[in-house]
Amino acid sequence: MVALLATLLAYPVLYAVRLAFTDPLTGHFPSLVNYAQLGRDALFWRAVRNNALLPLASVVVELVVGLALALFLSRRFPGRAALRALVVIPFALPEIVVLTIMRYIFVRRGYANAALAAVGWPALDWLTPGSALAWITVVLVDAWHVTPVMFLILLAALAGIPAEIGEAAQLDGAGPLARFRYMTLPLLRPALLAAVLLRGVDALRIFATPLVLTGVEGVPVLSSYAYHQWSDYGNDAAAAAAALVLALASVALSVPLLRLREAA
């Protein structure tokens, strides 16, 4: 196991760190020339901004929708099992399948504009590179695909809350909103923090959704920017530098969230 981890994890990470601090022209190490290049690239700063805002927006949507679905589907009613299975389907689909379907929906002559035309509304350019609508579309597509993760975590947490607590609060005169605010939310806090930690760190790695829907420069993020440097320009050092920025951002986010999780 140690040999496997060293081969597949430690060596590539250390090699990438060395590459990020190596001048690709002179081979000099250590050097900040790659980061100087990133600092002069407007596309890199767009990727940094998107990498901060896209995961935040996506996790907020997933948290709100996942919690609403978990609260609704934790109740007993006919057809509940079928609805639960339906909610989980998006996450069960392979990402490339989801994104292929979404391209058919949101391209200029796709199903979304066909639906708008059917009600007399003008067509929209959902995936125009750099547009606010493309940014929103990427957020919603990413949230649609991954909200089931949030839903399952919160549904399991709700199932662990004893029904007697809610019944006692109801007997004491607490209404639905009061029970949710003062009973359900505090008891869900560990699960909420765990879900936000899991999705927050994972959302920073967003790659395929903006790349497939809008292209490299449409809604750039650090992972797609690194891929762009490597595949289109053959600049391995700049790609490693961008990847290292993303890795450090992931660590910087996960440490405070882990502390909050432990405190809960």
User: Structural class, from secondary structure content?
Assistant: mainly alpha
Helix content: over 70%
Give Rg in angstroms: 22 Å
Quaternary: single chain
Count every beta strand, where a strand is a DSSP E run of 2 or more residues.
0
* Count of individual helical segments: 12
Largest sheet: none
Q: Average the pLDDT over all residues and give the rounded result.
A: 88
Q: What is the chain-wise order of helices and strands?
A: HHHHHHHHHHHH
Q: What is the first-to-last residue Cα distance?
A: 33 Å
Low-confidence stretches: none
Shape: globular
Q: How large is the share of residues in beta strands?
A: under 5%
How is this structure best described in words?
It is a single chain. The chain is an all-alpha fold. The protein is 76% helix and 0% strand. It has 12 helices and no strands. It is globular, with a radius of gyration of 22 Å.
